[in-house]
Amino acid sequence: MAYSIGQVADQLGVSIDTIRYYDKSGLLPFVQRNSIGRRTFTDNDVHLMRTIVCLKNAGVPVAEIATFIELRLKGDETLSDRYQLLKTHEQALQQQITDLQDTMSYLKFKEWYYQTATEAGHEDIHFVPGTNEVQPDLDQEYDRHLKATGQLKELARFANVKDYRLRRR
């Protein structure tokens, strides 16, 4: 079946301009044009473009996506190279996911901090008496809160993201 650029954009959830950009960047050498110069896409083209969109969403630079496309067009002799490229970016993406989960965990800690301070009407509940320094064992209080509320996965995640100052104990 043949698809227009608009149909492909709809299928992939990207704009027509994005597809044009991919084409101008050399990522779509496999796409044919009809007699009046319009791009026509096959099911296989759409499949390969879905890979391009996935790689782009994973943060893979356009130049590396172009390399991947070139390797794919060369055929089976590049299977190992393509696999390795994907594996490398999978590891980088996994690290980004872990970093975002850690950031989310710390954000939840800060939300708890401000929620409890708001409920108390003042931030002093988290300070060493007579100072504006945060209690050094505040992480343990948050740990107890997480245990008491059954947030065991969050407790495990929070163990990885406590302030360096709090971890030194």
Q: Specify Rg, calculated over alpha carbons.
A: 25 Å
Across the major sheet, the strand order is 1-2
Strand segment tally = 2
Outline the biggest β-sheet. 2 strands, antiparallel
Counting helices, strands and paired strands, the structural category is mainly alpha
Give the proportion of residues in helices. Answer: 55-70%
Order of helices and strands: HHEEHHHHHH
Number of helices: 8
SSE blueprint:
Layout: H1 5-12, H2 16-24, E1 32-33, E2 39-40, H3 43-57, H4 62-74, H5 79-120, H6 138-148, H7 152-158, H8 164-167
Antiparallel strand pairs: 1-2
Description of the molecule:
64% of the residues lie in helices and 2% in strands. It has 169 residues and is mainly alpha-helical. It has a two-stranded antiparallel sheet with strand order 1-2.
Structure keywords:
single chain; 169 residues; mainly alpha; two-stranded antiparallel ribbon; 8 helices; 2 strands; 64% helix; disordered C terminus
Quick overview of this protein structure:
This protein has 169 residues and is an all-alpha fold. Helices cover 64% and strands 2% of the residues.
